[in-house]
Amino acid sequence: MNILILGSGGREHALAWAIRQNPKCDRLIVAPGNVGIAGVAECADLDVLSRADVLEFAQENAIDFVVIGPEAPLASGVSDALRSAGFLVFGPSQAAAQLEASKTFTKEICDACEAPTAGWARFADAASARDHITAQGAPIVVKADGLAAGKGVTVAETVEQAHAAVDAIFDGEFGDMSVVIEEFMEGEEASFFVLSDGTGCLPIGTAQDHKRVGDGDTGPNTGGMGAYSPAPVLTDDLQAQVMERIIRPTVAEMARRSTPFQGVLYAGLMIRDGQARLVEYNVRFGDPECQVLMMRLGAQALDLLLACAEGRLAEAAVTWADDHALTVVLAAEGYPGSYRKNTPINGLNALPETGFEMTFHAGTAEKDGTVVATGGRVLACTGRGATLAEAHQRAYALVDAIDWPQGFCRRDIGWRAL
Ligand code: AMP
Ligand code: GLY
Fold it and tell me: Whose CA is nearest to atom 5 of ligand 1?
Protein backbone atom coordinates (compact mmCIF):
# COMPACT_ATOMS: atom_id res chain seq x y z
CA MET A 1 0.00 0.00 0.00
CA ASN A 2 0.93 3.67 -0.46
CA ILE A 3 1.26 5.40 2.88
CA LEU A 4 1.49 9.11 3.68
CA ILE A 5 2.71 10.35 7.06
CA LEU A 6 2.17 14.01 7.93
CA GLY A 7 4.82 15.72 10.05
CA SER A 8 8.53 16.46 10.22
CA GLY A 9 9.79 15.56 13.67
CA GLY A 10 11.49 12.73 15.52
CA ARG A 11 8.02 11.25 16.09
CA GLU A 12 7.38 11.02 12.36
CA HIS A 13 10.87 9.64 11.70
CA ALA A 14 10.16 6.88 14.22
CA LEU A 15 6.73 6.17 12.69
CA ALA A 16 8.28 6.01 9.21
CA TRP A 17 11.11 3.78 10.42
CA ALA A 18 8.67 1.26 11.91
CA ILE A 19 6.11 1.38 9.08
CA ARG A 20 8.81 0.98 6.43
CA GLN A 21 9.78 -2.40 7.94
CA ASN A 22 6.31 -3.84 7.34
CA PRO A 23 6.00 -5.72 4.02
CA LYS A 24 2.52 -4.20 3.52
CA CYS A 25 4.22 -0.86 2.94
CA ASP A 26 5.05 -0.34 -0.73
CA ARG A 27 5.51 3.39 -1.06
CA LEU A 28 6.10 5.66 1.94
CA ILE A 29 5.93 9.44 1.73
CA VAL A 30 6.45 11.79 4.67
CA ALA A 31 5.38 15.39 4.30
CA PRO A 32 7.23 17.59 4.87
CA GLY A 33 9.77 15.21 6.51
CA ASN A 34 13.41 16.04 7.21
CA VAL A 35 16.85 14.90 6.11
CA GLY A 36 16.84 11.90 8.46
CA ILE A 37 13.41 10.82 7.31
CA ALA A 38 14.67 11.00 3.72
CA GLY A 39 16.78 7.94 4.60
CA VAL A 40 13.68 5.76 5.05
CA ALA A 41 10.98 7.49 2.98
CA GLU A 42 10.31 9.96 0.20
CA CYS A 43 9.83 13.47 1.52
CA ALA A 44 7.32 15.85 -0.06
CA ASP A 45 6.90 19.56 0.41
CA LEU A 46 3.33 20.06 1.57
CA ASP A 47 1.41 22.44 3.81
CA VAL A 48 0.06 19.83 6.24
CA LEU A 49 -2.35 22.34 7.77
CA SER A 50 -4.17 22.87 4.48
CA ARG A 51 -7.05 20.42 4.04
CA ALA A 52 -7.20 21.13 0.32
CA ASP A 53 -3.47 20.64 -0.27
CA VAL A 54 -3.30 17.40 1.70
CA LEU A 55 -6.41 16.04 -0.03
CA GLU A 56 -5.10 16.88 -3.46
CA PHE A 57 -1.72 15.35 -2.67
CA ALA A 58 -3.31 12.13 -1.39
CA GLN A 59 -5.46 11.87 -4.51
CA GLU A 60 -2.59 12.55 -6.91
CA ASN A 61 -0.35 9.99 -5.25
CA ALA A 62 -2.96 7.23 -4.90
CA ILE A 63 -2.47 7.13 -1.14
CA ASP A 64 -4.14 4.20 0.66
CA PHE A 65 -3.48 5.22 4.25
CA VAL A 66 -2.68 8.56 5.91
CA VAL A 67 -1.04 8.72 9.35
CA ILE A 68 -1.24 12.15 10.98
CA GLY A 69 1.67 12.78 13.35
CA PRO A 70 1.27 16.21 15.03
CA GLU A 71 -1.72 17.84 16.72
CA ALA A 72 -1.96 20.94 14.51
CA PRO A 73 -3.38 19.21 11.38
CA LEU A 74 -5.77 17.25 13.62
CA ALA A 75 -6.99 20.45 15.25
CA SER A 76 -7.49 22.01 11.82
CA GLY A 77 -9.62 19.13 10.56
CA VAL A 78 -7.28 17.52 8.01
CA SER A 79 -8.47 14.05 9.07
CA ASP A 80 -12.13 15.02 8.48
CA ALA A 81 -11.37 16.27 4.97
CA LEU A 82 -9.51 13.08 4.11
CA ARG A 83 -12.15 10.77 5.63
CA SER A 84 -15.03 12.45 3.87
CA ALA A 85 -13.18 11.93 0.59
CA GLY A 86 -12.95 8.22 1.38
CA PHE A 87 -9.36 7.96 2.62
CA LEU A 88 -8.32 5.64 5.41
CA VAL A 89 -6.85 7.84 8.15
CA PHE A 90 -5.09 7.34 11.47
CA GLY A 91 -5.91 10.31 13.68
CA PRO A 92 -9.03 11.74 15.31
CA SER A 93 -11.58 14.10 13.81
CA GLN A 94 -11.38 17.80 14.58
CA ALA A 95 -14.25 17.37 17.06
CA ALA A 96 -12.50 14.51 18.88
CA ALA A 97 -9.16 16.35 18.82
CA GLN A 98 -10.77 18.75 21.32
CA LEU A 99 -9.50 16.29 23.92
CA GLU A 100 -6.11 17.90 23.42
CA ALA A 101 -6.98 21.32 22.04
CA SER A 102 -9.30 22.33 24.88
CA LYS A 103 -8.57 21.78 28.57
CA THR A 104 -12.18 22.69 29.40
CA PHE A 105 -13.53 20.10 26.98
CA THR A 106 -11.39 17.36 28.55
CA LYS A 107 -12.40 18.34 32.06
CA GLU A 108 -16.07 18.25 31.06
CA ILE A 109 -15.61 14.79 29.55
CA CYS A 110 -13.91 13.62 32.77
CA ASP A 111 -16.73 15.03 34.86
CA ALA A 112 -19.35 13.40 32.62
CA CYS A 113 -17.77 9.94 32.82
CA GLU A 114 -16.42 10.31 36.37
CA ALA A 115 -12.80 9.78 35.36
CA PRO A 116 -10.49 10.78 38.23
CA THR A 117 -8.64 14.05 37.56
CA ALA A 118 -7.67 17.25 39.40
CA GLY A 119 -10.45 19.54 40.61
CA TRP A 120 -10.82 22.53 38.30
CA ALA A 121 -12.53 25.79 37.49
CA ARG A 122 -12.54 27.98 34.38
CA PHE A 123 -12.39 31.76 34.20
CA ALA A 124 -12.83 34.18 31.33
CA ASP A 125 -11.36 37.20 33.16
CA ALA A 126 -8.25 37.83 35.23
CA ALA A 127 -9.95 39.27 38.32
CA SER A 128 -12.10 36.22 39.08
CA ALA A 129 -9.22 33.84 38.32
CA ARG A 130 -7.01 35.79 40.76
CA ASP A 131 -9.71 35.73 43.45
CA HIS A 132 -10.13 31.97 43.05
CA ILE A 133 -6.36 31.46 43.44
CA THR A 134 -6.26 33.66 46.55
CA ALA A 135 -9.09 31.61 48.05
CA GLN A 136 -7.54 28.23 47.17
CA GLY A 137 -3.91 29.00 48.06
CA ALA A 138 -0.78 27.42 46.57
CA PRO A 139 0.55 25.15 45.15
CA ILE A 140 -1.93 25.49 42.31
CA VAL A 141 -1.87 24.98 38.56
CA VAL A 142 -2.72 27.63 35.96
CA LYS A 143 -3.41 26.61 32.36
CA ALA A 144 -4.12 28.61 29.23
CA ASP A 145 -7.14 26.94 27.67
CA GLY A 146 -5.89 26.08 24.20
CA LEU A 147 -2.98 24.68 22.24
CA ALA A 148 0.07 26.55 23.52
CA ALA A 149 2.79 24.15 22.32
CA GLY A 150 3.20 22.72 25.81
CA LYS A 151 4.01 26.16 27.18
CA GLY A 152 0.66 27.24 28.56
CA VAL A 153 0.92 25.48 31.94
CA THR A 154 2.29 26.98 35.16
CA VAL A 155 2.65 24.81 38.24
CA ALA A 156 2.75 27.70 40.74
CA GLU A 157 4.36 27.22 44.12
CA THR A 158 3.07 30.52 45.43
CA VAL A 159 -0.09 32.57 45.02
CA GLU A 160 2.03 35.38 43.52
CA GLN A 161 3.38 33.07 40.79
CA ALA A 162 -0.14 31.89 40.01
CA HIS A 163 -1.40 35.48 39.78
CA ALA A 164 1.48 36.35 37.45
CA ALA A 165 0.62 33.36 35.23
CA VAL A 166 -3.00 34.49 35.02
CA ASP A 167 -1.90 38.01 34.09
CA ALA A 168 0.43 36.69 31.38
CA ILE A 169 -2.41 34.68 29.83
CA PHE A 170 -4.84 37.60 29.84
CA ASP A 171 -2.15 39.97 28.59
CA GLY A 172 -2.38 37.97 25.41
CA GLU A 173 0.83 35.95 25.57
CA PHE A 174 -1.02 33.02 24.00
CA GLY A 175 -3.62 34.92 22.00
CA ASP A 176 -7.29 35.08 22.96
CA MET A 177 -7.72 32.63 25.82
CA SER A 178 -9.52 31.74 28.97
CA VAL A 179 -7.84 30.10 31.94
CA VAL A 180 -8.33 26.81 33.75
CA ILE A 181 -7.19 26.69 37.38
CA GLU A 182 -6.51 23.22 38.73
CA GLU A 183 -5.87 21.56 42.03
CA PHE A 184 -2.18 20.61 42.30
CA MET A 185 -1.72 16.82 42.15
CA GLU A 186 1.28 15.17 43.77
CA GLY A 187 2.78 11.89 42.64
CA GLU A 188 4.78 10.26 39.89
CA GLU A 189 3.94 11.03 36.28
CA ALA A 190 3.73 8.46 33.52
CA SER A 191 2.28 8.27 30.03
CA PHE A 192 -0.06 5.60 28.73
CA PHE A 193 -0.72 5.09 25.02
CA VAL A 194 -3.97 3.48 23.93
CA LEU A 195 -5.33 3.05 20.42
CA SER A 196 -9.06 3.57 20.03
CA ASP A 197 -11.15 2.85 16.94
CA GLY A 198 -14.16 4.67 18.33
CA THR A 199 -15.43 1.82 20.48
CA GLY A 200 -12.59 -0.66 21.07
CA CYS A 201 -9.35 0.17 22.88
CA LEU A 202 -5.90 -1.42 22.75
CA PRO A 203 -3.03 -0.35 25.03
CA ILE A 204 0.22 -0.14 23.07
CA GLY A 205 2.73 0.89 25.69
CA THR A 206 3.78 3.08 28.58
CA ALA A 207 6.56 5.64 28.89
CA GLN A 208 8.05 8.25 31.14
CA ASP A 209 9.69 11.38 29.89
CA HIS A 210 11.95 14.12 31.21
CA LYS A 211 10.43 17.55 30.68
CA ARG A 212 13.03 19.74 32.39
CA VAL A 213 16.03 20.83 30.35
CA GLY A 214 18.73 20.07 32.94
CA ASP A 215 20.16 17.04 34.73
CA GLY A 216 18.40 16.24 37.99
CA ASP A 217 15.12 17.60 36.54
CA THR A 218 16.24 21.23 36.85
CA GLY A 219 15.70 24.30 34.67
CA PRO A 220 12.80 25.26 32.45
CA ASN A 221 10.29 22.90 30.87
CA THR A 222 10.82 21.61 27.34
CA GLY A 223 8.91 19.45 24.90
CA GLY A 224 10.82 16.51 26.37
CA MET A 225 14.55 15.79 26.68
CA GLY A 226 14.29 12.02 26.71
CA ALA A 227 11.99 9.11 27.47
CA TYR A 228 11.95 5.43 28.21
CA SER A 229 9.49 2.58 27.89
CA PRO A 230 8.05 0.71 29.69
CA ALA A 231 7.30 2.93 32.71
CA PRO A 232 7.80 0.68 35.75
CA VAL A 233 5.28 2.69 37.80
CA LEU A 234 2.48 1.68 35.40
CA THR A 235 2.15 -1.92 36.53
CA ASP A 236 -0.30 -4.28 34.83
CA ASP A 237 -2.78 -3.72 37.67
CA LEU A 238 -2.54 0.02 37.35
CA GLN A 239 -2.94 -0.16 33.56
CA ALA A 240 -6.10 -2.21 34.08
CA GLN A 241 -7.36 0.39 36.56
CA VAL A 242 -6.66 3.23 34.11
CA MET A 243 -8.40 1.38 31.28
CA GLU A 244 -11.46 0.78 33.43
CA ARG A 245 -11.78 4.15 35.16
CA ILE A 246 -10.32 6.61 32.65
CA ILE A 247 -9.78 5.33 29.09
CA ARG A 248 -12.87 3.21 28.44
CA PRO A 249 -15.24 5.74 30.06
CA THR A 250 -13.68 8.52 27.96
CA VAL A 251 -14.01 6.55 24.73
CA ALA A 252 -17.62 5.65 25.61
CA GLU A 253 -18.47 9.28 26.43
CA MET A 254 -16.94 10.48 23.14
CA ALA A 255 -19.01 7.90 21.24
CA ARG A 256 -22.14 8.86 23.19
CA ARG A 257 -21.65 12.47 22.03
CA SER A 258 -21.39 11.27 18.42
CA THR A 259 -17.74 12.34 18.26
CA PRO A 260 -16.06 8.92 18.50
CA PHE A 261 -12.33 9.02 19.13
CA GLN A 262 -10.24 7.25 16.52
CA GLY A 263 -6.47 7.37 16.88
CA VAL A 264 -4.05 7.26 19.76
CA LEU A 265 -5.05 8.53 23.18
CA TYR A 266 -1.92 9.60 25.01
CA ALA A 267 -2.94 9.86 28.64
CA GLY A 268 -0.69 11.81 30.99
CA LEU A 269 -1.25 10.28 34.43
CA MET A 270 -0.37 11.22 38.00
CA ILE A 271 0.14 8.19 40.20
CA ARG A 272 0.06 8.14 43.95
CA ASP A 273 -0.64 5.36 46.45
CA GLY A 274 -1.66 2.92 43.73
CA GLN A 275 -4.24 5.33 42.26
CA ALA A 276 -3.96 7.09 38.90
CA ARG A 277 -5.54 10.40 37.97
CA LEU A 278 -5.61 12.01 34.55
CA VAL A 279 -3.39 15.07 34.07
CA GLU A 280 -4.20 15.57 30.40
CA TYR A 281 -4.92 13.88 27.11
CA ASN A 282 -3.02 14.29 23.90
CA VAL A 283 -4.56 12.97 20.72
CA ARG A 284 -1.33 11.99 18.96
CA PHE A 285 1.89 10.22 19.85
CA GLY A 286 4.30 12.03 22.16
CA ASP A 287 7.63 13.26 20.89
CA PRO A 288 10.05 11.72 22.03
CA GLU A 289 7.77 9.03 23.55
CA CYS A 290 6.89 7.79 20.06
CA GLN A 291 10.55 7.02 19.41
CA VAL A 292 10.72 4.51 22.28
CA LEU A 293 7.29 3.03 21.47
CA MET A 294 8.14 2.49 17.79
CA MET A 295 11.52 1.05 18.68
CA ARG A 296 9.70 -1.58 20.77
CA LEU A 297 6.78 -2.24 18.40
CA GLY A 298 8.75 -2.29 15.14
CA ALA A 299 6.96 -3.40 11.97
CA GLN A 300 3.72 -4.42 13.74
CA ALA A 301 3.07 -0.71 14.37
CA LEU A 302 1.58 -0.49 10.85
CA ASP A 303 -0.78 -3.42 11.47
CA LEU A 304 -1.94 -1.81 14.71
CA LEU A 305 -2.50 1.63 13.17
CA LEU A 306 -4.39 0.01 10.28
CA ALA A 307 -6.58 -2.03 12.64
CA CYS A 308 -7.32 1.18 14.50
CA ALA A 309 -8.23 3.14 11.37
CA GLU A 310 -10.35 0.28 9.98
CA GLY A 311 -12.28 -0.27 13.22
CA ARG A 312 -10.79 -3.73 13.78
CA LEU A 313 -9.09 -3.22 17.15
CA ALA A 314 -11.24 -5.93 18.78
CA GLU A 315 -9.31 -8.53 16.79
CA ALA A 316 -5.87 -6.89 17.13
CA ALA A 317 -3.17 -7.74 19.67
CA VAL A 318 0.32 -6.47 20.41
CA THR A 319 3.20 -8.94 20.34
CA TRP A 320 5.47 -7.85 23.15
CA ALA A 321 9.14 -8.68 23.38
CA ASP A 322 10.33 -8.48 26.96
CA ASP A 323 12.34 -5.37 26.11
CA HIS A 324 13.11 -1.78 27.06
CA ALA A 325 13.84 1.31 25.00
CA LEU A 326 15.34 4.67 25.93
CA THR A 327 15.83 7.83 23.92
CA VAL A 328 18.10 10.82 24.58
CA VAL A 329 17.30 14.12 22.88
CA LEU A 330 20.17 16.19 21.51
CA ALA A 331 19.14 19.84 21.50
CA ALA A 332 20.70 23.07 20.29
CA GLU A 333 22.55 25.08 22.97
CA GLY A 334 20.12 27.66 24.36
CA TYR A 335 16.99 25.51 23.95
CA PRO A 336 14.25 25.94 25.20
CA GLY A 337 15.25 29.61 24.89
CA SER A 338 16.74 31.05 21.71
CA TYR A 339 19.34 28.99 19.90
CA ARG A 340 21.53 29.17 16.79
CA LYS A 341 20.44 27.52 13.58
CA ASN A 342 22.45 25.86 10.82
CA THR A 343 25.30 24.59 13.02
CA PRO A 344 26.92 21.52 11.40
CA ILE A 345 26.51 18.01 12.83
CA ASN A 346 29.14 15.41 11.96
CA GLY A 347 29.46 11.69 12.54
CA LEU A 348 25.88 10.79 11.63
CA ASN A 349 26.77 8.61 8.64
CA ALA A 350 28.86 6.21 10.71
CA LEU A 351 26.12 5.53 13.29
CA PRO A 352 24.69 2.01 13.48
CA GLU A 353 21.04 1.70 12.43
CA THR A 354 19.56 -1.55 13.67
CA GLY A 355 16.53 -2.79 15.60
CA PHE A 356 18.50 -1.95 18.75
CA GLU A 357 19.90 1.48 17.97
CA MET A 358 18.54 4.26 15.84
CA THR A 359 19.07 8.00 15.68
CA PHE A 360 15.82 9.75 14.82
CA HIS A 361 15.98 13.23 13.31
CA ALA A 362 13.74 16.00 14.59
CA GLY A 363 15.21 19.28 13.38
CA THR A 364 17.77 18.73 10.65
CA ALA A 365 18.39 19.76 7.07
CA GLU A 366 21.16 19.29 4.52
CA LYS A 367 23.29 22.23 3.40
CA ASP A 368 26.11 21.78 0.90
CA GLY A 369 26.38 18.10 1.75
CA THR A 370 26.48 18.66 5.53
CA VAL A 371 23.69 17.94 7.99
CA VAL A 372 22.83 21.08 9.97
CA ALA A 373 20.59 21.66 12.98
CA THR A 374 17.42 23.60 12.19
CA GLY A 375 15.41 23.25 15.39
CA GLY A 376 15.59 23.27 19.18
CA ARG A 377 15.29 19.54 19.64
CA VAL A 378 17.38 18.10 16.85
CA LEU A 379 18.09 14.37 17.26
CA ALA A 380 16.74 11.53 19.39
CA CYS A 381 19.36 8.83 20.01
CA THR A 382 17.41 5.70 20.78
CA GLY A 383 18.49 2.34 22.15
CA ARG A 384 16.64 -0.90 22.84
CA GLY A 385 17.76 -3.84 24.92
CA ALA A 386 16.77 -6.69 27.22
CA THR A 387 17.16 -4.32 30.15
CA LEU A 388 16.78 -0.58 30.57
CA ALA A 389 20.49 -0.40 31.41
CA GLU A 390 21.33 -1.98 28.05
CA ALA A 391 19.00 0.40 26.19
CA HIS A 392 20.59 3.30 28.09
CA GLN A 393 24.10 2.20 27.18
CA ARG A 394 23.17 1.89 23.48
CA ALA A 395 21.45 5.30 23.37
CA TYR A 396 24.37 7.12 24.99
CA ALA A 397 26.86 5.30 22.73
CA LEU A 398 25.05 6.98 19.81
CA VAL A 399 25.12 10.35 21.58
CA ASP A 400 28.86 10.05 22.18
CA ALA A 401 29.58 9.18 18.55
CA ILE A 402 27.95 12.38 17.29
CA ASP A 403 30.17 15.40 16.76
CA TRP A 404 28.05 18.50 17.30
CA PRO A 405 29.79 21.13 19.46
CA GLN A 406 26.68 23.38 19.59
CA GLY A 407 24.47 20.57 20.85
CA PHE A 408 23.77 19.28 24.35
CA CYS A 409 21.77 16.58 26.07
CA ARG A 410 20.83 15.42 29.54
CA ARG A 411 23.15 12.73 30.86
CA ASP A 412 20.62 11.23 33.29
CA ILE A 413 17.73 10.02 31.12
CA GLY A 414 16.04 7.08 32.83
CA TRP A 415 17.53 7.78 36.29
CA ARG A 416 14.29 7.08 38.11
CA ALA A 417 14.01 3.57 36.67
CA LEU A 418 17.69 2.61 36.47
P1 AMP B 1 -0.32 19.58 30.68
O2 AMP B 1 0.06 20.39 29.48
O3 AMP B 1 -1.71 19.76 31.14
O4 AMP B 1 0.11 18.15 30.58
O5 AMP B 1 0.66 20.06 31.84
C6 AMP B 1 2.06 20.01 31.68
C7 AMP B 1 2.69 19.48 32.93
O8 AMP B 1 2.30 20.26 34.05
C9 AMP B 1 2.27 18.06 33.30
O10 AMP B 1 2.99 17.08 32.63
C11 AMP B 1 2.51 18.06 34.78
O12 AMP B 1 3.87 17.86 35.07
C13 AMP B 1 2.15 19.44 35.19
N14 AMP B 1 0.75 19.50 35.64
C15 AMP B 1 -0.33 19.79 34.89
N16 AMP B 1 -1.46 19.75 35.61
C17 AMP B 1 -1.09 19.44 36.88
C18 AMP B 1 -1.80 19.26 38.10
N19 AMP B 1 -3.13 19.43 38.20
N20 AMP B 1 -1.08 18.92 39.21
C21 AMP B 1 0.25 18.77 39.14
N22 AMP B 1 0.98 18.94 38.02
C23 AMP B 1 0.32 19.27 36.89
N1 GLY C 1 6.76 14.82 24.97
C2 GLY C 1 5.55 15.46 25.24
C3 GLY C 1 4.63 15.60 24.12
O4 GLY C 1 4.84 15.13 23.03
O5 GLY C 1 3.60 16.26 24.31
Answer: 153
CA of 202 to the centre of ligand 1 (A): 25
Question: CA of 42: how far to CAs of 34, 293, 374, in Å?
Answer: 10, 23, 19
Cα of 151 from ligand 1 centre, angstroms: 11
3-class secondary-structure state, position 85: coil
CB of 148 sitting under 6 A from ligand 1: no
CATH 3.30.413.10 fits 188-315, yes or no: no
C-beta of 226 in contact with ligand 2 (< 6 A): no
Residue 151 has pLDDT above 70, yes or no: no
Q: Do 358 and 366 touch, CB atoms closer than 8 A?
A: no
Q: 324-408 architecture in CATH? A: Alpha-Beta Complex (3.90)
Q: pLDDT tens for residues 135-146? A: 999 999 999 886
Residues 340, 8, 84, 265: what is their CA dihedral angle, to the nearest 10 degrees? -100
Helix-helix angle 10-20:289-297, to 10 degrees: 10
> According to the model, what pLDDT value does residue 137 have?
97
- Closest ligand to C-alpha of residue 208 is 2
Q: Relative to the CA of 290, which ligand 2 atom is closest?
A: 4
For domain 2-91, give its CATH number from 3.40.50.300, 3.40.50.2000, 3.90.190.20, 3.40.50.20: 3.40.50.20
